[in-house]
Design a protein that fits this description.
- This protein has 171 residues and is an alpha+beta fold.
- It folds into 2 domains: 1-25; 31-169, no CATH class.
- It contains 2 helices and 10 strands, in the order ααββββββββββ.
- The chain has helices at 3-22, 60-69; strands at 77-83, 88-95, 101-102, 110-111, 113-114, 117-118, 123-125, 131-136, 151-157, 162-169.
- A hairpin with a 4-residue loop joins strand 1 and strand 2 (88-95).
- The radius of gyration is 21 Å and the shape is globular.
- Residues 18-26 have low confidence and may be disordered.
């Protein structure tokens, strides 16, 4: 193949990619809730089995109140949060189908500080989407603190765990 033919082919491919990207074929950034839609169900479970999930007993009042409010995340889950100090949030997830309480490490001591400012919403989510946004710094799953940068952290719920898909750092 001649050199000019190769150059033309490469330029054609680059042009095609540029056109497809500008036409909206590329993934939108930052990720949007609409890109991770899921069907919303009514929670079937009426109570949490605190004997089966003993760690949940500590937060019995908040978890029971959250269950009563119904599904608020990813189709059949219920995110329930509570404060752990100024600009700090802890949370758990109740499976609305079976009452199982899930403790994602990203929800342990979520730090909502942005320098001297605090985010009003640490956890941003929708009942018809598997996308979750943590504004601030996600929890580390331990008491030593998170090493994540301060910013907006985007996660996709894949059953019992989250998968991080993007971070937009803040100053």
């Amino acid at each position: 193949m001649r050199k000019s033919t190769v150059v033309k082919s490469v330029l054609s491919i680059v042009f095609l990619i540029a056109v497809m990207s500008s036409a909206g074929w590329a993934q939108k950034f930052p990720p949007a809730f609409a890109g991770y839609r899921t069907k919303v169900e009514k929670a079937r479970v009426r109570s949490i089995d605190f004997k089966k999930y003993p760690d949940a007993r500590t937060y019995r009042t908040r978890l029971t109140a959250g269950l009563a409010e119904g599904v608020n995340f990813a189709g059949h889950f219920i995110i329930v949060g509570w404060g752990c100090g100024t600009g700090c949030t802890n949370a758990g997830i109740i499976d609305g189908r079976n009452g199982k309480v899930i403790w994602p490490e990203e929800f342990f001591n979520v730090d909502a500080t942005y320098g001297d400012n605090y985010s009003d919403i640490q956890l941003d989510f929708r009942k018809n989407s598997r996308l979750l946004v943590i504004h601030g710094r996600p929890g580390s799953g331990n008491d030593s603190g998170s090493t994540e940068p301060v910013g907006d952290h985007y996660f996709v719920w894949n059953g019992p765990t989250f998968r991080k898909i993007a971070t937009v750092p803040k100053r």
